[in-house]
Amino acid sequence: MRAIRFAESLSYDAAYSEPHPGNGECVVRVHLAGICATDHHIVRGYMGFSGVLGHEMVGTVVEGSEAWIGKRVAGEINCVCRRCDLCQAGLSSHCRERTVMGIAGRDGCFADLVTLPERNLHEVPETISDEEAVFIEPLAAAYQVIQQVPIEPRTRIAVVGSGRLGLLIAQVLATTGCKLEVVGRNPKTLLFCEKKRIQSKSVDEVRLKNDRDVVVECTGSPKGMGIALAMVRPRGTVVLKSTYAGKGTGARRHEGTEGGEEGGGDGVDLAPMVVNEVTLLGSRCGPFSEAINALARRAVEVSSMVARVFPIERGLEAFEASADPANIKVLLKINPR
Amino acid sequence: MRAIRFAESLSYDAAYSEPHPGNGECVVRVHLAGICATDHHIVRGYMGFSGVLGHEMVGTVVEGSEAWIGKRVAGEINCVCRRCDLCQAGLSSHCRERTVMGIAGRDGCFADLVTLPERNLHEVPETISDEEAVFIEPLAAAYQVIQQVPIEPRTRIAVVGSGRLGLLIAQVLATTGCKLEVVGRNPKTLLFCEKKRIQSKSVDEVRLKNDRDVVVECTGSPKGMGIALAMVRPRGTVVLKSTYAGKGTGARRHEGTEGGEEGGGDGVDLAPMVVNEVTLLGSRCGPFSEAINALARRAVEVSSMVARVFPIERGLEAFEASADPANIKVLLKINPR
């Protein structure tokens, strides 16, 4: 089958071996897949992963249990053991033995076919197009923010970083009616906010006055974290959606987050968070059901984020295009629906 | 009056000018004062403070309103405006206009006399000795931990760092009956834990398995933070009691925390906290009333932490002694009770 794989370098393989589903697993024929910052990290050596990349997709089940065959699905990316202490404690997304589609120990969805455990699948309702459904995984990560922090209409909240994930999070936050501002660098993404009637500001003009109740950091850079800590009020909350590339220690697993586009081992000065008694919340994957529901009832609009769509054969070109921040989202077209 | 002051360098001044109390302020004749890591930071240039050092004390009110004269007191260190947005919002310990005794914009208590607003004073009950009362300020900071995080007997909790503040926090946590372990480097402080029947371990032997519900970081070093993030379980909580010296940005105010003894601008890699969805809580000053209550009912024992007591005239020598981690706490004897 066709696949975009990484092993020391990124390549297109027209004859990658087809996957063999394990017990309780389904094979999904992939329609569309999305390229994410984490994919770029992996290509820079992060996670030590080799194999087929990709963890955002929509496709049709072609093999597996009768009930699923023919269903159009999106898939949760953490494949878990259900036996370790964390699975037993209800924290299975943190399973100590987990593999992660296209990120750790398991091939991803930049291929004709991908396998996932049946219990990872979510059927996509007919009202959601493929081009929307491919956003379910990152949109779920965005919904995680409002599951972790109670947001009210009077909450003053800033999203630092107007990349793919920042714009999804901003849209999710906008649904709460809170006092929202997006802080970014890229005029194109700030224009996207304007169209959505979300207040936005260039990072150079933003007021750093420790006066926001909540700040969501999604730049992926220590500098962005510095801005977040200068914006959040004493006893406020910073939600950290970014990992910082460069300092590799400890970051064994790393999925569902916006990656460190400017990351480079600088690290973060945490003194202000102690002095101001800030709460910092690490935030990773999120609830697929919320994302599917939001797309189905049109609470969030994602189609206009798609800048370019490439056939899988031109996957390397697609990767290059997705490195340009002006292209908010780049997709791979793999199979017709 | 006699005072230990800092202005480019530390000096003993036998004829420092006596303080003039402002409106609503009292003058306290200091009996005993404690040297803390923050004092050492200031001497290294942190906060850009110059003036009399010292923010841990017990003394007797000698000037001010009738009701307070003759009372033995400890004093809260943040002197606030009560008018700014944060004071109005009930966050007065984060007052934007605050001065901080011996740390920012206000002389401290390493002197015969110190002034504080009347509303900062807490009377010390007769059952608490001077040598105990001088621990009220840091013990309050320790109590802040259990005010921020609910601790239950089944909670698995580690304190990383067995310095002054770490040992106070460990004692406070021990009162909850939780599953507690202190991780430190200094044999003398680990022996202190043993005497208190608190489980302790050398940092070189500790199990880094992401299996503690809560970790309190009080080493003041990015390395300690790395250990904390390797000990805390996914979705667990790290309470950050340390500021990290070296990276100066943003750390305008810095009080009531254990300082960065190994700090040096390294910064911290936060990727593991995103991947494991850890909650990080910055924690600074705490409730004086809890600390006074704990000392009065003997829930916490502090006297055996005192390694040496110097007269104020030998304050520079006392500073040197307090830089040695084997001396858990060093006090300055300033006036008889």
Task: Walk me through this protein's architecture.
- 2 copies of one chain form a homodimer.
- Chain A is of the alpha/beta class.
- Chain A has 2 domains: 3-135 and 302-333, Quinone Oxidoreductase, Chain A, domain 1 (Alpha-Beta Complex), CATH 3.90.180.10; 139-282, Rossmann fold (3-Layer(aba) Sandwich), CATH 3.40.50.
- Helices cover 24% and strands 28% of the residues of chain A.
- Chain A has 10 helices and 19 strands.
- In chain A, strands 3, 5, 6, 10, 11, 18 and 19 form a 7-stranded mixed β-sheet that branches. In chain A, strands 14-13-12-15-16-17 form a 6-stranded parallel β-sheet, sandwiched between helices. Chain A has a 3-stranded antiparallel β-sheet with strand order 2-1-4, with no helix packed on it.
- In chain A, strand 18, helix 10 (315-322) and strand 19 form a beta-alpha-beta unit.
- The longest helix of chain A has 13 residues, at 136-148.
- The interface between A and B is large, with 48 and 48 residues.
- Strand 17 (279-282) of chain A pairs antiparallel with strand 16 (279-282) of chain B, so a sheet runs across the interface.
Report the total helices of chain A.
10
State the distance separating the first and last CA atoms of chain A. 17 Å
Largest interface: A-B, 48 and 48 residues
Mean pLDDT of chain A: 91
Low-confidence stretches of chain A: 245-265
CATH topology annotation of the largest domain in chain A: Quinone Oxidoreductase, Chain A, domain 1
Helix content of chain A: 10-25%
Q: Compute the CA-based radius of gyration of chain A.
A: 19 Å
Quick one: how many beta strands of chain A? Answer: 19
Q: Largest beta sheet of chain A, briefly?
A: 7 strands, mixed
